[in-house]
Specification:
By secondary structure, this protein is α/β, with parallel strands linked by helices. It has 2 domains: about 170 residues, Trna Endonuclease, Chain: A, domain 1, CATH 3.40.1350; about 70 residues, no CATH class. The chain is built from 7 helices and 5 strands; from the N terminus they run ααβββαββαααα. It has a 5-stranded mixed β-sheet with strand order 1-2-3-4-5, with helices on both faces. Helix 4 packs parallel to helix 7. It is globular, with a radius of gyration of 19 Å.
Length: about 250
């Protein structure tokens, strides 16, 4: 995969992950639980790649589609993936949200090396009117890999074939050629903001530089939580006090 184009890497990486989601019962259940979807033993998971809708423009082609079917109930989600340094593009995601709404799709799920505190948070901020009837979720690749590693370390997967698939998924995502990696550096405005702080220069809390640095810090904290989760073999999350609320007690 080292010489593949970014688009081919995205397609291959997503294809492997979606196949594992559909095949490994516990893995799919863990990921769907993070976005509020319960996957029971009677739930059927179908996954597709490079889907095209008859009423869509030729250049609007989501990377994937997930269909959960439980009895007569069906839940669907479009999937868009980025690898390496590629970041999610707001106009593109908005076009997928509009495509989902036009076709009765319930949600859009994005995957990239960007981090968010929770799966229902998102690196982008589309207009509220666009996400009024279509949910928007985000998984970082490291979050996906961490869920797989936690299941393996806890021996939560009992089927031998599914264990082998999950082990191979972790090995695959761990290889540098996939373009999957953790948070590597703060944004470029970080150094200038530090210099301003050290020089007692005024810093506007609503400035774009401050917002960019705060977003970078949140990504770093989330990545650290995932690293600690893998090292400690148990989920680790950030405990934040409520805004203007009481300070949480120390354990």
């Amino acid at each position: 995969m080292a010489n593949s184009t970014p688009e081919k890497k995205e397609g291959r990486t997503l294809s492997v992950v979606l196949s594992s989601v559909a095949f490994v019962e516990e893995f799919g259940a863990a990921l769907f639980a993070s976005i509020g979807q319960r996957k029971g033993i009677r739930t059927k998971v179908d996954v597709y790649t490079e889907v095209v809708f008859a009423n869509s423009e030729s250049n609007v082609r989501p990377d994937g589609l997930i269909v959960l079917t439980t009895g007569k109930r069906q839940w669907t989600a479009l999937v868009e993936a980025k690898v390496g340094n590629a970041e999610l593009d707001l106009p593109q995601i908005e076009s997928y949200l509009q495509l989902a709404r036009a076709n009765g799709i319930d949600a859009v799920i994005t995957l990239s090396n960007q981090f968010t505190a929770q799966s229902n948070h998102h690196p982008l901020s589309p207009p509220k009117t666009v996400i009024r009837k279509v949910a928007l979720f985000h998984w970082s690749w490291m979050f996906v890999m961490t869920q797989a590693m936690l299941l393996l370390s806890a021996k939560s997967v009992t089927d031998d074939d599914q264990i082998n698939v999950l082990e191979e998924l972790v090995r695959f995502l761990s290889h540098p050629s996939t373009g999957v990696r953790g948070f590597e550096r703060m944004p470029s405005v970080w150094s200038n903001l530090v210099k301003s702080a050290r020089g007692d220069a005024p810093i506007k809390k609503n400035s774009s530089e401050v917002k960019e640095v705060i977003e970078g810090w949140h990504q770093e904290v989330r990545d650290l939580c995932l690293i600690m989760s893998r090292l400690l073999h148990t989920p680790v999350d950030v405990r934040l006090p409520a805004i203007n609320g009481p300070t949480p007690k120390r354990d």
